[in-house]
Amino acid sequence: MAYPSVCSGRDSLTGLDKIPRPFLIGVAGGTASGKSTVCGKIMEQLGQQSVLEHNRRVVIISQDSFYRDLSHEEHKKANKGGYNFDHPGAFDVELMYNTLVDVKAGKRVEIPKYDYVAHKRTSEGATVIHSADVVLFEGILVFYFPEIRDLFNLRLFVDTDPDTRLSRRVLRDIEERGRELDQILNQYMTLVKPAFEEFCLPTKKYADVIIPRGADNVVAIDLIVQHIQELMRPNRTNRRQRNNSDSIVGRPH
Ligand SMILES: Nc1ncnc2c1ncn2[C@@H]1O[C@H](COP(=O)(O)OP(=O)(O)O)[C@@H](O)[C@H]1O
Ligand SMILES: Nc1ccn([C@@H]2O[C@H](COP(=O)(O)O)[C@@H](O)[C@H]2O)c(=O)n1
């Protein structure tokens, strides 16, 4: 696939002289490992959970918003748990890449919400990004595509044991995604688990920080938040000019 050129290259975490805004964090991990929950905790600890959504300076995007549109046949398969949503080919990589490039360039971007019952993006409840300090991009395969992997300034991998993930997925898919138990287990055994082992797990090596036990790991989350705050501190040398009051650092939590 041909991608448009972008000023790429990852800012070294020790080379603190060039901290980009927004600071783009990739959060990978298996299904139901706690990626969204970890992102929520990071946002909360940065004091943003109580801020109205359109004023937030820390934004979470889900990779699921970039699933390809399904054909009629694929949609029928998906309704039976037989469509492979865990394969890299299920994603619109070009749209995902172009969107992240726009986010990094500070452009106003609208990210549609994904409807897991209808298996498609919805026009309602889109996340609007216009002047974020930190953008968290979470999903099972956010480190799979090299061009996308290279866009991240920090990479986290949420490492939760597979039994825990399966039991959480079963409960979540029944409660929130309108699924039946036999369909969930069949999809998991035939598609989700093999794809996790083939495509997701091998990307753990790209992480800067691996978070064992996901959101239960308060120490890891505290350290990550401290690191982000340190990087984003307004009086860092050579940082982009901005008003102190605009910063997420030092805001009341
Ligand atoms: N540490 C935890 N303890 C208990 N339940 C959790 C924990 N982390 C996540 N969950 C639950 O597990 C399910 C999957 O978590 P989620 O954060 O959505 O995972 P992911 O984004 O990786 O799919 C959700 O129902 C969530 O509430
Ligand atoms: N229509 C869909 C789309 C995705 N899935 C499954 O969701 C998982 C990814 O989301 P997580 O929050 O669990 O990371 C992935 O494993 C897909 O199997 C789905 O079932 N239906």
TrEMBL record:
EC number: 2.7.1.48
Signal peptide interval: none
Domain of life: Eukaryota
Keywords, in A-Z order: ATP-binding, Kinase, Nucleotide-binding, Transferase
Record-linked NCBIfam families: PRK05480.1, udk
Organism the protein comes from: Biomphalaria glabrata
Alphabetized PANTHER family for the sequence: URIDINE KINASE
SUPFAM superfamilies registered for this protein in UniProt: P-loop containing nucleoside triphosphate hydrolases
Claim: Transferase is one of the keywords in the record: yes
Residue span(s) of domain Phosphoribulokinase/uridine kinase: 24-219
GO molecular function: ATP binding; uridine kinase activity
The reaction(s) this protein catalyses: cytidine + ATP = CMP + ADP + H(+); uridine + ATP = UMP + ADP + H(+)
Protein name: Uridine kinase
Pathway note: Pyrimidine metabolism; CTP biosynthesis via salvage pathway; CTP from cytidine: step 1/3; Pyrimidine metabolism; UMP biosynthesis via salvage pathway; UMP from uridine: step 1/1
Similarity remark: Belongs to the uridine kinase family.
InterPro entries membership: P-loop_NTPase, PRK/URK, Uridine_kinase-like
